[in-house]
C-alpha cells in the first residue's frame, strides 16, 4: 500500500481541464486520464467508496502523480491519448500495433526522384503518402504508378551504375531515366502526375497524359502516343473501380466486437473515392468492466494520434463522449469531422461488414491464444517447469555455405509472437559453416547486452539443434551466471519429419509426438525463428550483391563511378584497364586510379 496522499494532492489542483498521470513506486506509468475538472476527477479516485477491483488495485499502487493543464477538454482528450501511446500504461486500453503502418515515399532531392514502399520515421525533404492500412494496399498503388507513369524503383546505388535499361523498362514499368531515355523535365511532369494520382486528382492526370499523347502524335511517334492512350484508359478504369458512391470520398468505417474481456476493431479506409484496404486491431488491457463505448473511444484517440482523420467516420457503435471526440478530431484535422453510427443504405452495409470482420478477427485471435495457452501449459508439464513460461526466446542460424551468416532471436509469450522484440545478429569472425560457434556468439551477445541493460530475461530458451548446440549454449549461460534459465534443444526427427523432433533438456530426451500440444507450439516457434533467420540472411546477401566495389574506394562518389562505368562499359572493363587508362577519365588522378585497381583486385 502506497503512502501517497491523493486527497491532499487533489486539493492542490486546478478546477480547469487537463490530463493526469499516475506512477508507481518505481516511477512506471500506471494510468493516464483526462478531466474536465482536474481537482474533482482526481479526488474521486481517493474517496472512501468502493470503485471496483480494478480501480482499487490502481489506487493502491499509486506513489506519485503529474498533471498538465489544457485550454479545453478536447485538447485534454488529444493529449491523453498521446501520453497513452508514449507510455503504454498498464491500466489503460492500449493500441499495440505489431509494426508501423506502411507509406509511399517520394524521395526528393534527386534529378529523377524514386518512389517506393516505406516504413519508419517520416523525415524531410521527402514526401509521404499514407498511412495505408496494409502493405498490400501500398503495393497495389505502387504497381499502378509504375505502370502509368514509369517512375523509377531502383535505389541510388543501382541507378548511378546502370549502363543499359533494366527489365522494368522492357516491361513498360520504368522510363529508364538512368540511361537518359527520358528528359529531366518530362520525368518531373510524370512525378507531378503521380502525385496528383495519389491525391485522387484523376482528371488532372488524364489531362497530363492527353497532352503527352498529343505531343507524341504531332512528332509522328505513334507507338508512344498509343502507349499514352493506353495509360489514359488505365486511369479511367482505376477511377471507375472501388469508387465510393453518394457522399464524402474520404472516410473511415470502424466496426468493433468485444467478447470475454477482449476486443477487436476493424478499420476500412476510403481515400479519394477508393477503398484502400482494411486492417484489424486488438487493443490491450481491455477489461470486462469497460463498455464497448469506452473501448471505442480509447481506440479513436490512439488510432488518430499520429494520423489526420478523414472528414467522416462511420462507426458500428456510439463511442463515449462522442460529441467531444468529434470536436477533438476536428481540431486535429483543422476542419469538421463527422462521427456517424446510425446510417442507412450502402453505408450501413459497410458498417455491418466492418463489424463482421472485427468479430471474425477476434474469434480467430481467441482461438489462437487458447491454442498457445494449451501449448505453454503442456510444455511446462512435459519439462517439469512448475508453471507455464511467460517469455520464450528461440534462436536459429541461417547461411549458405557459411557465407553471410545471420542468427535470429524470436520472442513468444501467452499472447503469441512479440515481433517488436525480434532481433537479427550478423555473425562475425567465426569459421564459415561453424554453427556451434555462431550459436555461441549470438547467445553471448544477446544475454551480455540483456544483463548490461537490465532487459527482461526469458523463462525458457529454445535452441534449434541437438546436444552439440545445447552444450555450447549451456557453457555460455554458466559463464554469464544465467544457468538457472532452462534451455531446451530441439533436435530434428527421423528424415526431418515435422512433429517427431526430440526435446533435449539437460540429460533428458523426450519425443512428444506430432499430436502433443507442446510439440505444436514448439514447431510454431522454431519455424518462426527459421523464417526470421532466412529473412535476415537474404537481406544481408541482397545488400552485398547490390553494392558496387567502387563504393568502397574513398574519393569515388556517384559522379566519378558513373563516369568510370560509362568510359569502360561496366565493371569488367574497369578491371581490365590499367592505371594510365583510368587516369584519362575526368576527375581520376593517379592516387584514385591506384585505389580503384587495389579495391577491384580484393573484390
Features:
alpha+beta; GIY-YIG endonuclease; Nucleotidyltransferase, domain 5; five-stranded mixed sheet; 45% helix; 18% strand
Explain how this protein is built.
With 603 residues, the chain is an alpha+beta fold. It folds into five domains: 6-73, GIY-YIG endonuclease, CATH 3.40.1440; 103-240, no CATH class; 251-364, Nucleotidyltransferase, domain 5 (2-Layer Sandwich), CATH 3.30.420; 392-544, Nucleotidyltransferase, domain 5 (2-Layer Sandwich); 549-602, Orthogonal Bundle (DNA polymerase, domain 1). It is 45% helix and 18% strand. The protein has helices at residues 6-11, 38-45, 53-61, 73-87, 135-149, 156-160, 167-170, 184-198, 202-218, 222-240, 292-303, 322-333, 345-383, 435-452, 467-480, 517-546, 558-568, 571-576, 579-582, 590-602; strands at residues 18-23, 29-35, 64-69, 103-107, 114-118, 127-129, 251-259, 262-271, 274-281, 312-315, 338-340, 392-400, 403-413, 416-417, 423-426, 460-463, 487-491, 502-505, 508-510. Strands 12, 13, 14, 15, 16, 17, 18 and 19 form an eight-stranded mixed beta sheet that branches. Strands 9-8-7-10-11 form a five-stranded mixed beta sheet. Strands 2-1-3 form a three-stranded antiparallel beta sheet. Helix 15 (467-480) links the parallel strand 16 and strand 17 (487-491).
Amino acid at each position: 500500500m502506497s503512502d501517497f496522499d491523493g486527497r491532499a494532492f487533489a486539493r492542490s489542483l486546478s478546477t480547469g481541464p487537463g490530463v493526469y498521470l499516475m506512477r508507481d513506486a518505481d516511477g512506471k506509468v500506471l494510468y493516464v486520464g483526462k478531466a474536465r475538472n482536474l481537482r474533482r476527477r482526481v479526488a474521486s479516485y481517493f474517496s472512501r467508496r468502493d470503485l471496483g477491483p480494478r480501480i482499487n488495485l490502481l489506487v493502491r499502487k499509486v506513489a506519485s502523480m503529474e498533471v498538465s493543464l489544457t485550454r479545453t477538454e478536447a485538447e485534454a482528450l488529444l493529449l491523453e491519448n498521446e501520453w497513452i501511446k508514449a507510455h503504454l500504461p498498464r491500466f489503460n486500453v492500449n493500441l499495440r500495433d505489431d509494426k508501423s503502418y506502411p507509406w509511399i515515399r517520394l524521395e526528393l532531392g534527386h534529378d529523377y526522384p524514386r518512389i517506393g514502399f516505406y516504413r519508419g520515421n517520416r523525415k524531410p525533404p521527402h514526401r509521404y503518402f499514407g498511412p495505408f492500412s496494409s502493405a498490400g494496399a501500398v503495393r497495389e498503388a505502387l504497381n499502378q504508378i509504375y505502370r502509368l507513369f514509369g517512375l523509377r524503383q531502383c535505389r541510388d546505388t543501382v541507378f548511378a551504375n546502370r549502363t543499359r535499361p533494366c527489365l522494368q523498362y522492357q516491361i513498360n514499368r520504368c522510363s529508364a531515366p538512368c540511361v537518359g531515355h527520358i528528359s529531366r523535365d518530362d520525368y518531373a511532369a510524370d512525378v507531378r502526375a503521380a502525385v496528383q494520382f495519389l491525391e485522387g486528382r484523376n482528371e488532372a492526370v488524364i489531362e497530363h497524359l492527353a497532352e503527352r499523347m498529343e505531343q507524341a502524335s504531332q512528332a509522328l511517334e505513334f507507338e508512344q502516343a498509343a502507349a499514352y492512350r493506353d495509360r489514359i484508359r488505365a486511369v479511367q478504369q482505376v477511377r471507375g473501380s472501388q469508387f465510393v458512391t453518394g457522399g464524402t470520398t474520404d472516410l473511415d468505417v470502424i466496426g468493433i466486437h468485444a467478447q470475454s474481456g477482449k476486443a477487436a476493431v476493424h478499420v476500412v479506409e476510403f481515400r479519394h473515392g477508393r477503398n484502400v484496404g482494411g486492417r484489424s486491431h486488438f487493443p490491450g488491457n481491455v477489461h470486462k468492466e469497460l463498455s464497448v463505448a469506452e473501448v471505442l473511444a480509447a481506440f479513436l484517440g490512439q488510432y488518430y494520434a499520429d494520423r489526420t482523420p478523414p472528414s467522416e467516420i462511420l462507426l458500428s457503435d456510439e463511442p463515449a463522449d462522442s460529441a467531444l471526440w468529434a470536436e477533438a478530431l476536428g481540431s486535429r484535422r483543422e476542419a469538421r469531422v463527422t462521427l456517424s453510427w446510425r446510417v442507412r443504405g450502402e453505408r450501413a452495409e459497410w458498417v455491418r461488414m466492418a463489424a463482421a470482420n472485427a468479430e471474425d478477427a477476434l474469434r480467430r485471435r481467441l482461438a489462437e491464444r487458447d491454442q498457445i495457452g494449451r501449448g505453454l501449459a503442456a510444455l511446462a508439464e512435459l519439462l517439469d517447469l512448475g508453471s507455464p513460461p511467460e517469455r520464450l526466446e528461440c534462436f536459429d542460424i541461417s547461411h549458405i555455405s557459411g557465407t553471410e551468416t545471420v542468427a535470429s532471436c524470436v520472442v513468444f509469450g501467452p499472447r503469441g509472437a512479440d515481433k517488436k522484440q525480434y532481433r537479427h545478429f550478423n555473425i562475425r569472425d567465426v569459421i564459415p559453416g561453424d554453427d556451434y560457434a555462431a550459436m555461441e556468439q549470438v547467445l553471448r551477445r544477446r544475454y551480455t547486452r540483456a544483463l548490461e541493460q537490465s532487459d527482461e530475461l526469458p523463462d525458457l530458451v529454445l535452441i534449434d539443434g541437438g546436444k552439440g548446440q545445447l552444450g555450447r549454449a549451456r557453457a555460455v549461460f554458466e559463464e554469464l551466471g544465467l544457468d538457472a534459465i532452462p534451455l531446451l534443444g530441439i533436435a530434428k526427427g527421423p528424415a526431418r519429419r515435422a512433429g517427431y523432433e526430440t526435446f533435449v533438456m539437460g540429460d533428458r530426451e523426450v519425443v512428444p509426438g506430432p499430436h502433443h500440444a507442446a510439440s505444436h507450439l514448439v514447431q510454431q516457434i522454431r519455424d518462426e525463428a527459421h523464417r526470421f533467420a532466412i529473412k535476415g540472411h537474404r537481406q544481408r546477401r541482397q545488400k552485398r550483391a547490390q553494392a558496387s566495389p567502387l563504393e568502397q574506394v574513398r574519393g569515388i562518389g556517384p559522379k566519378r563511378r558513373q563516369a568510370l562505368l560509362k568510359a569502360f562499359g561496366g565493371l569488367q572493363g574497369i578491371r581490365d584497364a590499367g592505371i594510365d587508362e583510368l587516369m584519362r577519365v575526368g576527375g581520376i588522378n593517379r592516387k584514385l586510379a591506384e585505389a580503384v585497381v587495389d579495391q577491384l583486385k580484393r573484390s
